[in-house]
Amino acid sequence: MSTMNISLPDSLKSFVDEQVSKGAYGTSSEYVRELIRKDADRLHLRSLLLQGAQSGHGGTADAAYFESLRERVRKRATPGTSK
Q1: Taking the complete model, does pTM exceed 0.70, yes or no?
Q2: Per-residue model confidence as pLDDT tens for the chain (83 residues)
Q3: Which of 30, 42, 58, 73 is 20 to 30 A from residue 8's alpha carbon, by CA?
Q4: Residues 22, 16 contacting (CB under 8 angstroms)
């Protein structure tokens, strides 16, 4: 694992220390890693949403569409039914 040193204003360091002292994280490094993971997840989700928005119209999500989804789920949930 690589090491990175960061500088924080006293107010932010106090905030990080408070989060660690509440017991949610064992160390300040764990807290920062979790923040970075969440930001990476957020960026990935944003990318997927933008791809979806750019992919064009995929059809109408009406009552018939949702009924077909329910039917597919029922078929998969019934033992002995082929997929």
Answers
A1: no
A2: 899 999 999 999 999 999 999 998 999 999 999 999 999 999 999 999 999 999 988 888 999 999 999 999 999 988 775 55
A3: 42
A4: no
Number of helices and strands in the chain (H, E): 3, 0
Tokens linked to 34: 């979790």
Let me know if residue 1 belongs to a domain: no
Q: Are 78 and 71 in contact (CB under 8 A)?
A: no
* Structural domain for 38, as ranges: 10-77
The radius of gyration of the chain's CA atoms, rounded to the nearest angstrom, is: 23
Residue type at 81 in one-letter notation: T
Neighbours of 55 (CB within 10 A): 8
